[in-house]
Amino acid sequence: MEKVINCFKKRPDAVARLICFPWAGGGSIHYARWGNVLNSSIEVFAVKLPGRESRAKEPFFQNMQQIVDEVISVLLPVMKEKPFALFGHSFGAFTSFAVADALKKLHNIEPVHIFLSGASAPYSEMRINTPKRSELSDEDFLRWMSSVGGTPPELLSNPEVLKLFLPALKADLHVVESYKCNKPETPFLSCPVSCFDGKEDIPHDLQAWKDATTGDFTVRMFDGAHFYLKDSANEKVLLDYITKQLETSEMDYL
User: Fold this and answer.
1) Which tens digit of pLDDT belongs to each residue from 4-17?
2) For the chain, is the Cβ count within 10 Å smaller at the N or the C terminus?
3) Is the Cα dihedral 243, 248, 253, 254 positive or negative?
4) What are the E-state strand segments in 29-72?
5) Residue 16 is assigned to a structural domain of this protein
6) Statement: residue 225 has pLDDT above 60
7) Which whole number is the average pLDDT over 140-156?
8) Is 147 designated active site?
9) What is the mean pLDDT of residues 175-183?
10) Is the pLDDT of residue 67 over 90?
11) Average pLDDT over residues 99-124
12) Number of H helices, E strands in the chain
């Protein structure tokens, strides 16, 4: 478990778990520290992918199935143990969706809530028509990333550090670009789905996520660009919202 999950604050008595998936090239620290911020009813599990942090020497995953298989093999017992929710930003939104899809199809379990941020649904026209970027040269790749504002500003200001992150960024982007997913003919989930985005980010087809569930569907927009959630004021609003939703779902679950 420790290899795949970063948990800053273990809460065995928590009523629900929030399982968070990193953005492209990202690690687990940003989400793991949410465990120190959220109240004691929620335990935060931040997923660690190969090729970064304590798994830096492991090869990157090549496709979405590898991520899904690993996450489910490690987390299935705890997912059956108590209510859980999924959160993913950008690349993490795709991995959250793919994990939820597999959990429902293979094990007939689903989250009490899914929180998806900064990404079009994988089966939406907007996503399918997105040009492939993972095979660009490093120079062109960086130019593109600067133009869309999809990079943490602290990385863009330090080219040497950015070069260290490029392999992970490209590897994750390759996973997304090779991930094929048909639009659900009928919704396969019944849990609520909440979508978030920055108002200044490039447009995403958030509404298309609605096709995945018969549950409540909500879209909330925040001031800021792609990494709106790194702003402390936005993060507070986001975490307050997540807490409220999970505490409400706990009542329903009970």
Assistant:
1) 999 999 999 999 99
2) C
3) positive
4) 42-47
5) yes
6) yes
7) 73
8) no
9) 94
10) yes
11) 97
12) 9, 7
In a domain, 252, yes or no: no
Containing structural domain, residue 120: 5-247
Task: Please check the confidence at residue 153 and state whether its pLDDT lies above 80.
Answer: no
The continuous run of DSSP H or E covering 219 comes out as strand 217-222
Please report which helix (H) or strand (E) contains residue 18, including its range.
strand 16-21
Which CATH number goes with the domain that contains 17?
3.40.50.1820
State the Cα torsion 148-151-154-160 to the nearest 10°: -110
Task: Transcribe 81-148 into DSSP letters.
Answer: HS-EEEEEETHHHHHHHHHHHHIIIII----SEEEEES---TTSHHHHTSPP-TTS-HHHHHHHHHHH
Would residue 90 show up in a list of annotated catalytic residues for this protein?
yes
Given the residues 90, 120, 194, 249, the one annotated as active site? 90
Bridge-partner residues for 115, per DSSP? 87, 194
Residue 158 confidence (pLDDT): 81
Query: 89, 113, 204, 226: which one is catalytic?
Result: 226
Asked if the model's pLDDT at residue 149 lies above 80, the reply is no
User: Hunting for tokens 């705890």 — which residue is that?
Assistant: 78
Q: Note if the pTM is more than 0.70.
A: yes
State the residue for tokens 């997912």: 79
Please answer whether residues 56 and 152 qualify as being in contact, where contact means their C-beta atoms are separated by less than 8 angstroms.
no
